[in-house]
Design brief:
The chain has about 280 residues and is of the alpha/beta class. The protein contains ten helices and eight strands. Strands 3-2-1-4-5-6 form a six-stranded parallel β-sheet, with helices on both faces. Strands 7-8 form a two-stranded parallel ribbon.
Length: about 280
């Protein structure tokens, strides 16, 4: 900048400005009367959570779904589970106001991981144990170490990641983001699906070899939740228009461009959920 302040590209892609250059396949025309603020998150965040539940590991009707982290990505995953007809949607989030919003947006239960402590995995497995343990009635074996069809969620979506900055609100159990990676695996039943959407983890995660080989899950890395821009963005717009996806409740405020640093800091502090930058003359 003119005063010598260095400027860095965000995410190795670009920055925040009135005019940007993007690749052709990432530029999708949208025909809608929705306000721009409700479309802003469809380039990322909301579209990632939606795609994770609808494309990458499609959630099936009546299934047990666990969503870890209730930022904009996680809350969008909660909504994707609701849209896909999940039977049980369990949201895990340390910040109280975000747990409350998760319940509004479709979660059937919202859990504070700090309150559960070391008992969180057992709590989730107990909630996802099925209605019967009689195998001939379609039930699951409910012994904790049974190698056949143990208890656990059908689908787990991890959207926690690591803390780049210390939050000024409630702090999660592990700022490195490694614990949620392991817990997401442990929440999920053998044969279930685990989707990792979190970012910025610091360290390595390990799984017991025998469980990894013989009680396997389908593991999916984020990769924008499996979204195809041209295919998915128009249908996501339709979901908002029809009232299936509630974008308005996730937007916590709007900011002009000259207050962008304030908005970014609020996100880092976790004192806001989704601030939207509006480019107005």
């Amino acid at each position: 900048m003119r005063d010598g302040t260095p400027v860095y590209e965000g995410g190795y892609l670009g920055g925040l400005s009135e005019i940007m250059v993007c690749t052709e396949e990432y530029c999708c025309p949208v025909f809608t009367q929705l306000p721009p603020a409700e479309l802003a998150l469809l380039g990322d965040q909301a579209s990632v959570g939606l795609s994770a539940g609808m494309n990458l590991a499609p959630i099936t009707a009546g299934s047990d779904v666990v969503v870890m982290g209730c930022g904009p990505v996680g809350l969008s995953a909660v909504q994707s589970a609701r849209i896909m007809g999940a039977g049980q949607i369990i949201a895990i989030e340390p910040i109280r106001v975000r747990r409350e919003l998760a319940l509004k947006l479709g979660a059937t239960l919202a859990i504070d991981p700090n309150a559960e402590g070391d008992g969180l995995v057992a709590r989730i497995r107990g909630l996802c144990k099925g209605r019967t343990n009689r195998a001939y009635a379609g039930g699951r074996f409910q012994e904790p170490d049974n190698i056949n069809v143990p208890t656990g969620a059908d689908f787990t979506i991890e959207a926690v990641g690591g803390d780049a900055f210390p939050p000024k609100t409630e702090v999660g159990p592990d700022p490195t983001g490694i614990l949620p990676l392991r817990q997401a695996w442990e929440f999920t039943r053998a044969g279930g699906s685990v989707t990792y959407l979190g970012f910025g983890q610091r360290g390595d995660v390990s799984f017991p070899g025998i469980w990894f080989a013989n009680r396997g899950r389908s593991l999916h890395a984020g990769q924008h939740g499996g979204m195809n821009m041209m295919r998915d963005l128009p249908r996501f717009v339709t979901l908002i228009e029809r009232g299936f996806f509630d974008m308005k409740s996730m937007i916590s405020g709007t900011y002009p461009l000259d207050r962008v640093l304030e908005a970014v800091q609020a996100v880092a502090d976790r004192t806001t959920l989704v601030p939207v930058i509006l480019f107005e003359s």
